[in-house]
Amino acid sequence: xxxxxxxxxxxxxxxxxxxxxxxxxxxxxxxxxxxxxxxxxxxxxxxxxxxxxxxxxxxxxxxxxxxxxxxxxxxxxxxxxxxxxxxxxxxxxxxxxxxxxxxxxxxxxxxxxxxxxxxxxxxxxxxxxxxxxxxxxxxxxxxxxxxxxx
Length: 150
What we know:
- The protein is α+β, with helices and mostly antiparallel strands.
- The protein has a domain at about 15-115: CATH 3.90.1030.10.
- Helices cover about 45% and strands about 15% of the residues.
- It contains five helices and three strands.
- It has helices at about 15-30, 40-55, 60-70, 75-85, 130-135, and strands at about 35, 95-100, 110-115.
- Strands 1-3-2 form a three-stranded antiparallel sheet.
- Helix 3 packs across helix 4.
- The protein is elongated.
- It comes from Candidatus Gottesmanbacteria bacterium RBG_16_38_7b.
């Protein structure tokens, strides 16, 4: 009987399954979207939601809990500093799963996992020579006085 059984085993033992979940979550945080099977996506969705909720709190103890799960500094910093502020007004539903189709090799259902909120727009840096391109307001180079030799 399957009474009160939670989660998917995905034909892996506990250590291998935890490593798989950790790697998928790290990739999603770093790259913003990943392509994986539907079963794996459903298995990690609740873990991601919990991590983002902890990151929104931003307290030291919550960040330490996130760091103990992810074990790498870059994803933890990105999750707390970039991703969590996008969802400050949202209670849940941080992940979108878009079905792509079936994988050719084993006919497994494949989905694209991505964040529901778009990344914050980055302002492009203007080149330093942008001022001199305007001909009307361009400053003319000053003539340097040179001393004549006798």
